[in-house]
Specification:
Layout: H1 12-76, H2 79-92, E1 98-100, E2 105-107, H3 109-127, H4 131-134, E3 136-139, E4 145-157, E5 162-175, E6 180-190, E7 193-216, H5 219-227, E8 241-256
Parallel strand pairs: 2-8
Antiparallel strand pairs: 1-2, 3-4, 4-5, 5-6, 6-7, 7-8
Helix pairs in contact: 2-3
Amino acid sequence: MNTASRPIHISKAQHGGAYIMVITAIMLIFMLVAVALSVTAASRRITARYAYNVGLFDLAVSGNEQALFLLCQSFDSQKEDVISRAWAQIVYGVPVVFIFSDEGLRLSALDEERFKQIFVEEAMAGYGDVLGDIFSIFSQAPRRRYQLTWELNTTFDMEEYTIINSYRAVATLTPYSGHFTISTRIHKSINGVLSPSRAAVQASIIWTASNHREITLDAYTISVLVANGAIFPDTPFPGMRIILDEFALTMVESQRIDIS
């Protein structure tokens, strides 16, 4: 038996098919490498942009916080009058229901909600006279809005030159019947040239329960409440204590605004 190996004959068509497969595989590898490089480059640009702008968003949030601080500071001087007016409307208004609680005598849940509504209405009405002293009036119609502006400069001394970053913030406050909206926009300049980097954050400022106070009933207040149909869980007497909620402004629902 002849065991000598015979040469394997490969046709030109087979040679061409193998060549095409190799070229195709190489092209696929190049394409995958290009996609990987472009994704990496895009991710690096996004990461760099985020790190560059994250400070702007922090400044915008601080602008909203500054407006909230000024509102709270202004309310401190009129809080006692607001509580007194709201309590007077409870005493001389529609009949209310008192219940026992762990803290003491309280208004029923329905009357507590009504007291909060009266409190907020009185507080917001009080702001109508002082907002113009705290902020600049920005617009009158269709709804009055107020603005607060401030600037911040940072200087970096290099070996051959100096970089001055300037930030300009504009906080816009809009009052509604029972709350405020606040938005702060930050614009950045580098050595006097306006930068494309900017940010804006908007939030709502609402009234939430923050504390409580005790009111001691006297004979006159008891007689007025009883005459108006107030319901007590027991026979009222002078010296009984009623627990009333207090409310304060709180910033909620902060969100970034797309101003690109």
